[in-house]
Amino acid sequence: MSKLVIRDLAAKIPVIQGGMGVGVSLSKLAGNVAKCGGIGIISTAQIGYQEEGFDEHPIETNMKAIEKHIKKAKEIAKGGIVGVNIMVATKRYEEYVKAAVKAGVDLIISGAGLPTRLPEFVAKSKTKIAPIVSSIKSAKVICKLWDRKYQRCPDMVVVEGPKAGGHLGFSYEELKEITSEKYAEEIKGIIQVVKEYGEKYNYHIPVVAAGGIYDVEDMKRTMELGVDGVQVATRFVTTYECDASEAYKQAYIDAQKEDIEIVKSPVGMPGRAIRNEFIEKTEHEPAKITKCHQCLEHCKQKDIPYCITDALINAVKGKVSEGLIFCGENAWRAKKLEHVSDIMEEFGSYMMV
Fold it and tell me: pTM higher than 0.85, yes or no?
């Protein structure tokens, strides 16, 4: 098993820690994953929520926090690879991308919409870029567009499957019908699409699979599909190094399989979360929204049952009964707190086989 190589970046262990917002994967988690030979990812979603001035000027505060957390993560990483996850749906997306580039981030992973203009925003920088796709169709669209408009290919492609956490790139109907076997074929098809564009640019575009990968056995099964690496998020929540509160981590440990369900996000997309008092209450009674935190481009305050920023901040701060706890399908498998180093050692053992 070889390293995960993204142009001039090489991760010793082919594991990317998935970006989790709000505030779940910041500099501490990302820095420690990178230090242990993987790729650590900071989520920029409302990244400045703990900073002074966030309530008055959320976007401007987020920009400062991007620089702060990338710098801190790189100090922890000691030469390891640090990236960010920036949602295309983010209000003033271009500014978030440029702030991360200016701060010297190694890699930008971008989904929640197709990052059609991402190459333009990182032009003349060393920052690598990777779109998130969920289907052969979306892989074809983004590769074709970048090829035609920017004469380039992605530096990496992340394939996010239906078992992932948070917002999902599938309809409710697709989530009911899609099976692991069906999606395995989709991944193989995406690999072929990406390979064609890689051949055109004389570059092996690494494909990384995400969603439902919890332990090294899951990693083995996924790597057998022909991908170059895996992205793991949920497993890293219940680590000592995770940036979320202890109560947030405990909610994962306490969760049973039947507690994890697909919910409707205020932005209209399906998402996966742990069922709790907050979800039950907002299904019948909209939460009071006092102000807009300028998070998502197409959110309309008058049409939503609750503010997703408020819900995610409450949860990550530890007020879990008043918040939304996004998670992957396998969150119920968490039984204890672990160190990032132990998890990375487990995933690294795959390379010894």
Answer: yes
